[in-house]
Write a structure and sequence with these properties.
Layout: H1 3-21, H2 26-43, H3 47-60
Helix pairs in contact: 1-2, 1-3, 2-3
């Protein structure tokens, strides 16, 4: 596993934890869609796209 893979996986864990703590609502729903897109990109070994989606998901949770 490349170092970038570990970094992305760590970010995914962090974003998912923040998502779990967030109150229900449209922001949480939007963040989930971006998180799921990040998972899909990560599985396809596209960490650049995964990180972009994680950035958006994090912003939606603020």
């Amino acid at each position: 596993m490349a170092p970038q893979d570990n970094k992305t996986a760590d970010r995914m864990t962090s974003v998912k934890a923040n998502w779990n703590k967030a109150p229900s609502g449209p922001k949480k729903d939007a963040a989930l869609r971006h998180y799921e897109a990040a998972e899909k990109a990560h599985k396809a070994n596209n960490d650049i796209e995964a990180n972009k989606e994680l950035d958006v998901a994090s912003a939606k949770l603020l």
